[in-house]
């Protein structure tokens, strides 16, 4: 057999084994969490408040679920519009300009920042200097900064993935760039943009470090008030494990958090497949 074919078959087999290994690891983690946490998930657990001594040893996680959703919503509200405007500039107007290159470097640098550094920055600026205190607002700003580059990159790539023939045809017909973008380009890129936003939501939902120093509390009502602390699923899980309060509650909380992340990721994958079908037409 040709040596090149042997190398090709070997590499393909290696790629399949690597993918299968990653899939098996994911299945093992989810199966373990289900076996440990599922028996303790109930309506009371999902809709109840933390109870027991120490607090959280019994009861439910509803305030943590609410707090997580409030943080995600606020982070998206703050970051989505600036991220989309940046992505539109990079894909449609900046192209190979110096400003676009600088913005790309800035976005890549932001994506590489450790989340705890972002949290400490917002703590120093918002919590201490501006007097927000440990609050939903501070946590939302920290998460917004963290997910901004994710939305920028995914939205930019979704816009660039749209067939360039649409742009060329619009230009040849004398259609304005503004009109062509909003009537032709943007509608075809929306599934990819939404997929990126969903991935950013999952990224924010699972983040612990930024909210530890900006928003999270061991016990809070999570009413949605901007200047009050909130409970959050990842921080609640950290407290349960770190303080050895209740491993049963910890496994159940982890299962709920992983379930939320899986739902967001599956929705994002579905939207990405729609985007690929649109681009192939």
CATH homologous superfamily of the largest domain?
MetI-like
**Can you count the beta strands?**
2
CATH architecture of the largest domain: Orthogonal Bundle
Global shape: globular
| Name of the top-level CATH class of the largest domain | Mainly Alpha
- Average pLDDT, rounded to a whole number, is 88
Give an overview in words.
By secondary structure, the chain is mainly α. It has two domains: 3-40; 43-280, MetI-like fold (Orthogonal Bundle), CATH 1.10.3720.10. 76% of the residues lie in helices and 1% in strands. It is built from eleven helices and two strands, in the order ααββααααααααα. The chain has helices spanning 3-37, 43-47, 62-94, 98-111, 115-129, 136-160, 164-172, 177-205, 209-212, 233-242, 247-280, and strands at residues 50-51, 58-59. The protein has a two-stranded antiparallel sheet. The longest helix has 35 residues, at 3-37. The chain is globular.
Secondary structure layout plus pairing:
Layout: H1 3-37, H2 43-47, E1 50-51, E2 58-59, H3 62-94, H4 98-111, H5 115-129, H6 136-160, H7 164-172, H8 177-205, H9 209-212, H10 233-242, H11 247-280
Antiparallel strand pairs: 1-2
Q: What would the keywords be for this entry?
A:
single chain, 281 residues, mainly alpha, MetI-like fold, 2 domains, two-stranded antiparallel sheet, 2 strands, globular
